[in-house]
Amino acid sequence: MNPYKIFDESVSFEEKAFQIFEFQKKFNPIYQSFCKALGIANPESVKEIPLLPIQAFKEKEIITAKKKLSTNSYQLFLSSGTSGMQRSQHFVADSNLYKQSIFDGMWEFYDLHEFVIWAYTPGYNSNPNSSLVWMLNALINRDDSKFSKFLELDNSLLQKEIDEIRTSGKKLMLFGAAFGLMDLAEKSNVEIPEDSIIMETGGMKTFKREIAKSELHEKLATGFGIAKEHIHSEYGMTELLSQAYSRGSEWFDCPSWMKVSIRDPKNPMQEVKTGEEGLIGVIDLANFYSCSFILTGDKGVMNVENQFQVLGRWNPKNLRGCNFLIDQD
Amino acid sequence: MININNYIEKVAQATRLWLQPDNQLLKVAIDRTVEEGLFSLEDIKFQIRTLKQKVDSGQVEEWAQRAGISESNNSIGRKVLCLHAGNLPLVGFQDALGTILSGADYFGKLSKKDPYLLASFLKKIEEFDLQNRVKYSTELSAYKELKADKVLFAGSEESVEPVKEKLFTLNAITEQSEFVIRTAKFSIAYLDNEDPVTLRDMIEAIFRYGGKGCRSVAVIVSPFSLSKVKCHFTDYVEEFWLRNPQLKKPAENLAYQFAFNKAIERDQAWLDDFLVQETDEFPDQEFMLNWVQGDHEKLKELRHHFGSSVQSVYRTGKNIDGIKTEFLSQAQTPDLWWEPDGVSVLETVIKQTHIPSK
């Protein structure tokens, strides 16, 4: 199958997913072994395709390829973390596929022609292995207005630059992690246009601080002086090449080649009922050369419109030992 | 004015009588518990036997003595609410006995997963007409307007919030109520030999009660690799299970974990209802044992890394420098005065501190 067919909306998601499943089951030894151990050879529906626990990206090279990748033939993304910590590795054999997923994914929700992209994150040169920074770099380079850029960390926003964007007729889309954006809002004494979008990329729980999403969005709206409907969120990770977006609410939408399901932690082969919490499972067809079928460690819930909310990390640490559970004991 | 020695003796006597083989209340409680599939008869008998041995050897009295209970050092007049978990038979016994022994008024929320066994003990205590109040129920609503001075329960900082909310709604607690939360979830053992006695003790420490207690071993650190001891180890497991069939079965996520381990080529032993895997990750699933090849330094590193989730570290021989340990043989047969989370139950109940609950 041509990997770029994943963007072809004339082919159903199910058909594409099954083709990729067969391809990855055949040419990804880790995923092959996983399916075999589960006894899954021919799933009858997309729901029955097993989702590989995301920790696999920390343990092994998750690569689907007919022959071994040669050095320098791939882009390597690493998850964030300090030295000594085990980090996820995502070997991306076709970075153009990633690029198209980024652009087409954003096009499903935004008119990219309208936006200047500012990224309040470390720059590409200092973080070449960050999939988020790579994505932002691609978006910045795409814009020919010359206004898109990585912002200097620890500096405030400049009114002059904001006004230049406004004058050009474009809108501002400001990317950043939760606390970085909050700090930026606090130190910047500027007026940003009310049609700007603040795009937070997560990071609500760090070593030092923690904040709930709703509270974060309120603070960002107040801090930047724009309506809460203009505080958007991007759900992505090193192990995925596609992103989901929430636009002014806590509910995320996926691009057409990505599907999220909520799985029962006691039986990840099963989806929970709509409205019930569970583990977020992702089918990301853009992961054509790694693994498209992933069980994350995030807690989530779905609504009847197939949108999902991210509720933090699933914390299984309380399953063992004595636990007084108010609804069971 | 209460004669504290008489009081302690009455409590001890009640406990001894409760554990007598001809105590019909206990027998009926055991039968009902088994009939309803709550716990296996073998696990219940093990627990009862263990408690009987401790009580008959005078441990109730000794516990009171160790805690320094006296006319001037007790909890008389104070209301203690115990929220009992139900993961293994009579898991709440120590809290209940400790609270009553301290002289406090005991209010027990019995677990719906273990509603009969502890109730049979409390019924026996009631027969002795002690001057403190003893009340128990499987319903939290029974403690409306209680305004307890202390609340004892096992859980986590995350799980305590919904509990506190519910208790505030019921007026079962006030802002001055002190919460004593036990957070330890599992224990670690250091295995440095394959003697039959050691291995049998280890199996008991791992598999008794389906591995569900915080004193149960969820992590083994050993100079031996899993592959070296796997076959030998599983022989002893099968021997244990013949005598003590595992009542509760794991969910499908155990098979999922097995498949994942196979995919990433992690060494493991699949025992149908239990999984042993070679990893130093946090042991976050039931019916699983993590095996870590390592020495004393690795043991200490893990102990430190897992923090307050670790109840005990067991050894089989000499003390291990730099780390507090207990004998492996006592894993599932601790003395009555053993300290959950390193804290004495009796002393906790007696201690008067004001830590606001909100």
In short:
Chain A contains 8 helices and 15 strands. Chain A is an alpha/beta fold and 329 residues long. Chain A has one domain (3-318): ANL, N-terminal domain (Rossmann fold, 3-Layer(aba) Sandwich).
Structure description:
The complex is a heterodimer of chains A (329) and B (358). Chain A has 329 residues and is an alpha/beta fold. Chain A contains 8 helices and 15 strands. A 7-stranded mixed β-sheet of chain A has the order 5-4-6-7-8-9-10, sandwiched between helices. In chain A, helix 1 crosses helix 2. Chain B is an alpha/beta fold. Chain B has 2 domains: 179 residues, 3-Layer(aba) Sandwich (Aldehyde Dehydrogenase, Chain A, domain 1), CATH 3.40.605; 145 residues, Aldehyde Dehydrogenase, Chain A, domain 2 (3-Layer(aba) Sandwich). In chain B, the strands form 2 sheets. Chain B has a 7-stranded mixed β-sheet with strand order 8-9-10-7-6-11-12, sandwiched between helices. In chain B, strands 3-2-1-4-5 form a 5-stranded parallel β-sheet, sandwiched between helices. The two termini of chain B are 35 Å apart. At the A-B interface, helix 2, strand 1 and strand 12 of A face helix 7 and helix 10 of B.
Secondary-structure map:
The complex is a heterodimer of chains A (329) and B (358).
Chain A: H1 13-27, H2 29-38, E1 52-53, H3 56-59, E2 75-78, E3 89-92, H4 95-107, E4 115-120, H5 131-142, E5 149-150, H6 159-168, E6 171-176, H7 178-187, E7 197-200, H8 213-224, E8 231-235, E9 244-247, E10 252-253, E11 258-264, E12 267-271, E13 278-284, E14 293-302, E15 308-313
Parallel strand pairs in A: 1-14, 4-5, 4-6, 6-7, 7-8
Antiparallel strand pairs in A: 2-3, 8-9, 9-10, 11-12, 11-13, 13-14, 14-15
Chain B: H1 4-18, H2 24-35, H3 41-56, H4 59-66, E1 79-83, H5 93-101, E2 105-109, H6 117-127, E3 134-137, E4 148-154, H7 157-169, E5 173-182, E6 186-190, H8 196-207, E7 217-222, H9 226-243, H10 253-263, E8 268-270, E9 275-278, E10 288-293, H11 296-306, E11 310-315, E12 326-327, H12 345-350
Parallel strand pairs in B: 1-2, 1-4, 2-3, 4-5, 6-7, 6-11, 7-10, 9-10, 11-12
Antiparallel strand pairs in B: 8-9
